[in-house]
Amino acid sequence: MIDFMDKFRLFGRVDRARLRHTASALTLAMLMTTAPGLVATAKAEPSVQQVLDTLGPIAGADGLVTETELRGWIGYLVANDPDPDATPPTSAQIDGLIASIPSSIDGSGTRIFSLETIVLMTAQQQLAENGGAWDGNSEPTLTQAAVIAQQAAGADGILTEAEFRAWAASLTGSFQVSDADIDRVVADINAAGGTFSIVSLLTHISGDGGDNGSGTDVGNTGGTDNGGQNGGGTGTGEPTLAEIQTMLTEIAGDDGVLTEGELRQWAMSFPESVRPSEADLDLLISRIGAGGEPFTVAAVMTAIGNDQGGGDNGGGEVVDNTGGGPQPGWNCNFLSNRADCQNSITGQVSVSATGPGAAVAASNDADISTSDDFQPGIVLQIWPYYDSNSGSSSQVYDHPDMALVNAGNITTVGFGAPAINVWGGSGAVRIENSGHLSTAGENSGGISVNTGMSNLGVPGGDITIVNSGSIVTGPGSAAIFAQSGSWNDGGDITITNSGTIQSQGWAAIAARSAGGDISVTNSGNLNSFAEWAVIGVRTEGGSAVATNSGMISVSGVGAGGISVDAEEGPVETGRAHPHQTADINNSGNINLLGEEQNGLEAYAFNGQATVVNSGQISSLQYWATGISIDSGREDTNTGAATVIHSGNISLSGNRSTGIQASTPRGTVNVQNRGTVRATGADSIGIFTVGVFGGSALVNNDGGAIVGGTGATTFASQSASGEGDGTAFTGSAGILMLGSDINTIYNTGTITSLNGQAIATFEGALTIYEWDDEQQVEVPFVLDIPVADTTIYNRAGGVVDGDIRLGSGDDRIFNSGRITGDIDMAGGTNLLENAAGGILTGSSIIVGAGNTFSNAGTLSPGGTGVIAETIVVGNFVQTSTGRMVIDINETAGIRNDAINVSGTATLAGTVTPNVIDLNEVVQSEYRILTSQGLTDNGIVANPAEVQVTDTIGYDFSLEQRANDLYLLAEQQRTASQIAAEAAASGAGGAGAQNLASLGGALESLEQSDDESSKVVLNAIRLQDGPASAAKVMDRIIPQQQGGTAGSASRSGASFGNAMLSCATRDGEYAYTREGKCYYAKLTVRRLDHDASSGSAGVRETGTEAMGGIQFDIGGERRLGLAFGYEDIDAKAFSTAQSLGSSEGQRFQGGLVLKDQWGPFNAYLNLTGNYTDLDNKRFVNLGGFTNALSEQEVMSGLIKLRLSYLRDMGPWYVKPLVDVGASYIHLGGYTETGAGGFNLTVASADKWLFSVMPGLEIGGEMRDGGGTIWRPYIRAGVTLYNDDGLSINARFADAAAAASGFNVATQLDTVYADIDTGMHVLTASGLNLRFNYEGRFGESTRQHAGTVKLSVPY
User: What is the C-alpha separation between 387 and 1324, in angstroms, rounded?
Assistant: First the structure.
């Protein structure tokens, strides 16, 4: 059986997109139907299909429209009439039409119209005008189906499912249908979510096609004109560009973007006679993709237009000016003589559209220049329809999209002469520029685009601008400017720039839309005077975002880097404002070169403003703001202002603010992971504002916040007295004004140059505004709410300065460090210093009856500073709490103290930090006083409050009424301390050194030598023997042993390098010496392990060496060599670094060789001189390093005897070395460490050694005559002595004071290895590569050498 839906399928299938072009005929028909005589004729019959397509979406699911919606729909149809000869209805005619349509009144008094009523009235008129009531034999049209459905509905006019089923079952003959077919139709309508009605039935039927009201194919050959300029679409003929654009717009939907699949499917749906080939379609798609463009309707239309090479008789223009020569630009005066410019294509770069149809598409790669005023380089424009009867313009057609691709260079010099100027209507505009644009005249931008015609009621179309070219513009304009609409009728704007822009005008990039959304993306470098902003974005009712990764410089007073403004837009009475967003994403650098400038500024009237910054913002000027953000309205709490900062803000001018975030009563959220510095007078690092309440959060997540200089109290004043607003005086790292709840998290640093890290403001605040009518500045007072403030200074966080809070209920939880005073004012407050937290302020005010709880460290004034801390409130120290008390017997005030206004309940620990006890034997210090010291077992149970002893002093605590005293008593002499230090782990020479130093210190102790007190106190005040041992290790010059060993081993290595000038051939060739020049480069590293008895050394050296060997008769040879070595050495113990040495070593030597058959003898003499700069790492008593210069000399005499056992390609060579080394360590006196400076005496040492060894090697020859001789030599070196001793004394001590000995242990047994390769070339050029290693019990030396020798 034939499919049921075929019974209602129309003969002429019409694309829904093309139906929109004949919509105005429907309006005329309705006028004739409901108000006969108002309109004499109509050029086309309307259809039920057109009503369903255009009014149906407005009516929605309930099928009802308001009078406002109905009038808007009629106005749309009138405005989009493509017939230039059609006479639009007057307002009176439209009023009569609406009054004649049946309606009802809803509960609010609004007139309501039924879509079904309008559809049925249209169907009745169609049949009345064209005849053709259904005869029951032919296939019914959609119009006939509407009338049939109305008849089936019965007297109530409501078509039920039962009535439809009854009517369908009554059909006979060729139209008889089965119950299954009826069920399927009903199921399809129900599945679509609609209520069963006449409209839902007709909508379902129209899904497979529609009619033109009379059964005639719309646009068929010879058919009636249906409103297009050359007729409608042919149905089976080739569509016009206008029809193509409408079809694609329908498919693309709201975002105007097609997929490639959708584009291909649409193209293949055409009849075979007009369907493009696969090759043509592939070419079209490749052209779009080659430009990197998305498949937007505009991009597709541009590509199709370029293919067709001209207009489509629908009013569009396609202009291609590629490969042309220089062009003169536009030759019309645009402002004063616009009519002359209609359809102007002068130079093939200026295009006007005068009617509906295809997109205006132009392209240019030629250079263009103009010289007169009002002469842009390239112009695209929409030309309004001109009504000769009324003498006025009116917009009565769909505006085409416009697109321009420019690669040419454009130069203009006149006033009002942009390089590219576009005046559009409601259609979309897309501009792509890669050429250089230069405009010198005032009000002459680079790219200027305006859409919409407010005087004609035409909304603004969407705008897209993509620029990669460079732009230079003069004053009074923006380099890139886009504006859409004027009053809640703007489209969306998208601007993408990667070019360099220099603008003397009010912006580099500016965009404004009356209600649309805006997106600006910049990666180019922008330099602008900018009266507004370098990048300025403003939407009234929409949302906006600006993204920047380029460098921005702005010089205009009061201007900004980037400004995004989502302002209030008009809304109908009773309707809510739309939710808006104003976003900035910046990763570029912004340089603020003028006064009163903002780096990044975002505002959202109703919604969310967000700034994300990872770039750098800098200014040296007055009243600069790095980031300014505001959101929300006074009457709601929905505003949200969010800043996420990880970059660097550096402002040094007065009255500057790093980050300012505000909302009347919404939410402020500032996240900082970067640096915020506002260091001028009256400057604030981060400033949050909640004038009427709300909440504010600042999370300083590892960042740095720095405020400026000036007062610590805040006030407001007029900025200038001339309407420049309100200025604050006072500075802080963070200032939180108002809000109901303030919260700060900190793991970074918060400080201010005036010493005020964190502050809040509440109460009366005077604001100054300008009265335009009276021309005076008017002050008015705001009552800033009281906030409850909570501060979490977490581990690692530093609040370096004071904290001053308001009268709310405040809390501070500290696990980091707070160095300043704390004033929590009134309210119910709590201060908790957790374990790990440090407080050092001189004033801690929590308020009477409130509690300061210390589980961390309280150190009045900080360690090393004698100070008093006043606590207003009650003080509780827990078992983990610690009070650090400085003691200095030589100061006027001898010790830190804590004064508590309330009660004090104590546990935990008291730790004395002795600066100078001045040799006291016993003393006492009052360290705490209160109004009521709780006896928490301080005396009866000393474990509750413990005191930390030192190795030289015993301390104890004693409570006397409400006071707590610290008692001190000296217990050990220096020698006793040294003995305990040695027993803590030192052994061998280390223990001897500590004992020797202890003896020297005790003699100074007994002699009451003033210069030694700093040294004695540094040792006595350590907390135990191990700490004392570490201090004494830093006093002992322990790198001397490493210096001696280095000089000796370097000399031995230098001597070994002199023992070979190899020969190629002859008897005993493996060991026969020749004559040669040679050069050697050696890199070595020496490691001597640290132990309990000796310091460790790590030394690196790079040596360059050169020499010559002579023939002095027979087999005797004499050699001379010189070398230079750069040295870098570090000394260390098992627990710490002890010192360093840097210097240069100069070496020289000679060698005498002789050979008797297989026997060889070498006599080697070497010497070196080393010049060192030494550092001893003291790090005691406020001193860092003790510095000295030292000279070291070393000499070596060595005899080597060897025997060669030649076995052809291999050999074995036993050998023995006997040597004597002399080492001289020069004396020196240190500087830079006060009483810790030492005078070290010179020392001399002889070492004797013997080394038996064995060398094995061989020889290989290649075809080129090169001889390869690998070898390996191993031996054991034995020294006669393992010790070195030097004497040192304190440089500032009396001459009679005794010194101390420093002993160093050296290894006496070393395993030596030397392996490498001799390469003897046929040309005589010889190379030697070798590795040399020496390994002792605690010593390892590695050296790599490259040696080049040339015989002569």
Answer: 104
| Residue of 838, 913, 821 whose CA lies nearest to 881 | 838
607-613 vs 640-645, strand pairing mode:
parallel
What pLDDT does 1024 receive? 85
What is the percent of the chain where pLDDT is above 90?
A: 43
DSSP 1111-1167: E-STT-EEEEEEEEEEEEEEEE-SSSEEEEEEEEEEEEEEEEEEEETTEEEEEEEEE
The residue written with tokens 């990666």 in the block is: 523
Query: In this structure, are residues 866 and 886 in contact, taking their beta carbons and an 8 Å threshold?
Result: yes
Distance CA 482, CA 476 (A): 15
Cβ 481 vs Cβ 447: under 8 Å: yes
Lowest mean pLDDT among 217-226, 569-578, 586-595: 217-226
Question: In degrees rounded to 5, what are phi and psi of residue 72?
Answer: -60, -40
Give the integer Cα–Cα distance in Å for 661 and 736: 10
Looking at per-residue pLDDT, the higher value among 353 and 172 belongs to: 172
For residues 1043-1071, b (16+ Cβ closer than 10 Å) or e, as one string?
bbbbbbbbbbbbbbbbbbbbbbeeebbbb
**φ, ψ for residue 532, nearest 5 deg:** -100, -80
pLDDT at residue 1042, as a whole number: 80
Cβ-based neighbours of 638, under 8 Å, separated by 6 or more:
606, 607, 632, 666
User: Residue 607, Cβ neighbours under 10 Å: how many?
Assistant: 21
Tokens representing residue 17 in the block: 């997109």
What length is written for the chain? 1352
Query: Per-residue pLDDT for 437 more than 80?
Result: yes
Q: Of 1352, 1330, 1270, 1350, which is closest to residue 1070 (Cα–Cα)? A: 1270
Q: Which two tokens stand for residue 1267?
A: 């001889």
Average pLDDT for 903-912: 88
**Contact 794/749 with Cβ under 8 angstroms?**
no
Which residue blocks in 101-178 are alpha helix, DSSP H?
115-130, 142-153, 161-169
Token pair of 464 as six digits: 């897209």
**Hey, what are 556's tokens?**
């205009």
Tokens for 132, please give them. Answer: 């053709």
Give the model's confidence band at 211: pLDDT under 50 very low, under 70 low, under 90 confident, else very high. very low
> What pLDDT, on the 0 to 100 scale, is given for residue 195?
63
Q: Which of 739, 751, 863 shows the shortest CA–CA distance to 790?
A: 739
Cβ count near 563 (within 10 Å): 26
Note the pLDDT of residue 1166: 95
What is d(CA 326, CA 241) in angstroms, rounded to the nearest whole number? Answer: 30
Neighbouring CB atoms inside 10 A of 1272's CB total: 14
Residue 1290 CA, distance from chain mean position: 55
As a whole number of angstroms, the distance between CA 362 and CA 321 comes to: 8
Lowest mean pLDDT among 225-239, 298-312, 625-639, 974-988: 225-239
Q: Which amino acid is at 24?
A: S
Q: Give the separation between CA 248 and CA 49, rounded to whole angstroms.
A: 19
- Strand, coil or helix: what is 1300? strand
**Burial call 308-343: b when 16+ CB within 10 Å, e when fewer:** eeebbbbbbbbbbbeeeeebebbebebeeeeeebee
3-state secondary structure of 1081: strand
Token duo for residue 896: 């830190």
Q: What is the pLDDT of residue 515?
A: 87
pLDDT digits (tens, 9 = 90+) for 672-713: 999 999 999 999 999 999 988 899 999 999 999 999 999 998
Nearest to 1054 by CA among 1153, 1167, 964, 1193: 1167
Cβ count within 10 A of residue 968: 24
What is the DSSP code string of 942-1000? TTSEEE---SSEEEEEEEETTEEEEEEEE---HHHHHHHHHHTT--THHHHHHHHHHHH
What are phi and psi for residue 764, nearest 5 degrees? -70, 135
Pairwise CA distance, residues 694 & 308, whole Å: 61
